[in-house]
Amino acid sequence: MHNLIFLDDLNGADLDPYVRLNEAQLFHALEPDPGLFIAESPKVIERALRAGYQPASLLVEEKALTRDLADLDHEMAANQTSGLGQTPIYVANSKLLRQLPGYNLLRGALAAMHRVKRLELADFLATMPAEHPRIAVLESVVNPANIGAIFRSAAALGIDGVIVTSDSADPFYRRSSRVAMGTVFQVPWTYADAKTWQHAGIDLLHQAGYQTAAMALRHNTVSIDDPKLTAVDRLVIIMGSEGPGLKEATIEQSDFTIKIPMAPGVDSLNVAAASALAFWELGNRVAE
């Protein structure tokens, strides 16, 4: 039995996560405990629930209620995951929901979900596969859509984990998780404090037995299909900010600088497009 609460307005404090709190405020909403994030659309909510994230509440469009709850219940049963239980499910008509930013993108449902504490970098590395691990580092990637697209490629193309510097966009921002189609809940990831990353991040990766490949153009840059890269057992692929790219210190400390061969007159790709090509070449491909 679902805990349905039909709304006449959006004024209640329980609706603040959907109506009045921005994503930074949601992130800090429950301090010192991890905060909240919004999962947007039934598909994204399904993947968050499947990954074990607990909902604080849902907000569902009335005309889509039967369909969306049936889909979510079916998904939970199929994956032997605990269902929605007594989670408050707020139900609103289309007229009310039009007051929300991005109404046309909601596709019927939103969920306020509890965050979990991310692992420290050393602990995160210890969870990676023992053989042939492939990790991506996103350094100062600030566009949520790019973050989402990179995660989607990582999930599809054999990347075992992602490290996101703290000055990047949050993978759980609504736009990030929507573009990722919920794969931000599927790929293991953690944060690296931006200052700590610059001072000690690559040293820590080296100490853990990884070699690092920075996506940058230098005199000694090698192609992503160079056999030296595929021969590396433990590899980290590092990609940088959409504008300036990787920091000079990151490039200097890396074992390789790598490039995607391109036609004359074009020297770079959007970081999301570049990630897909690099992951295809260097990730742990699924056997055909």
Automatic annotation (TrEMBL):
Gene3D superfamilies in UniProt: 3.30.1330.30, 3.40.1280.10
GO molecular function, one term: RNA methyltransferase activity
Sequence intervals crossing the membrane: none
Leader sequence residues: none
Keyword terms: Methyltransferase, Transferase
Biological processes per GO annotation: methylation; RNA processing
Domain tRNA/rRNA methyltransferase SpoU type residues, every copy: 135-279
Protein name: rRNA methyltransferase
Lineage: Bacteria, Bacillati, Bacillota, Bacilli, Lactobacillales
